[in-house]
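This week, work through this protein record:
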Amino acid sequence: MLRNRLILAAVIVGTGVFASFYGGNIPYALFYLTLFIPIVSLLYTVYVYLRVKVYQKIEHTVLVKGESSAYTLRVANEDFLSYQNLRILFFTGLSTVEGTEQSMNYCLLPGESVSMDTQLRCNFRGVYNVGARAIEITDLFNLFKLSYPIRADSSVTVLPRRVQLARLNILPLDEDAKNVLFRTHAAGEELDVEMRKYVPGDSRRLIHWKATARRGELMSRQYTESMKQGVLLCLDLRPTGLRDWMERGGTEDKLIESTISMADYCLSHHMPCDVYFCEKKEIEKVSARTPQDFDMFYALCGRMTFTAENGAGELIDCTLEREDGVYHYIVVTHALDGALYSAAVRAMSRGNEVTVVFISDAL
């Protein structure tokens, strides 16, 4: 395009010099003709920009990562002029439109249209735009270029993959009754708990810390029915700091998919499970104890963003303040730091068990 502009400028200067030296109708006609070329080209480009018609449709707006959906794109010339050099640009990387390249060029005669019926595949979790993003319009002489943004709503919500685990060794299923760590407090499953004074030899896991603080002496729980295991999942949503967007997206997806898989494992094995995470500044808790709760948590995972200001250590400290009881903490994180270590020590000092799942592509 720059070369064509330089050539046109040189021609305008040349015809101007020629007309000024020799005069006459033909030299001046050539000079004015070269002056009109950029004006006509610009007007043509703007005209096509205002008149081109683009339609696109995505069959499903909620997908699962790696899943394909029917995709339709139609570009039409409903005018009396030909549209030359239409270049369709697609969103790439996060999604893939099968059977297309990053850009495709078309030339449409009056009343002509081009349609594309294919499949669109989403490669990463999240909420983002897919399909065609713009059309580049170029004039006949390749002097001007305008980008026509496709304003149709093309955003989709892509849910993470749900991988079912056959076994999760960090959560033994057959615990000795003396070593069972957790109590459930889901509706309809509340345990009948009585308090008694601490007796030397009692497990620290049975100490009721709030009752101990209120009475000023150690108090132990005494359950009248068998306890069920429970899990607290702490999902670290701080920015990963990775510059490459594909590497960053892959690490973020692994963090969330790992959390979903472990929550699903707990659900299928009747283990009470709650998930703690941070959205920007606020630490939130989501229950995954019932199929309905899990489905709500799973839908939320498609919209999570890694913009948290609080890390895994702060999540553990928050649960220690909010939760009453002894739990198995599973921390899913991409960063190992002193705050996480200190919080894990505080949690274990109260009888909790802490497991850290560290995810990184650098290993």
Notes: Residues 38 and 263 are 64 Å apart (CA to CA). DSSP finds seven helices and 18 strands in the chain.
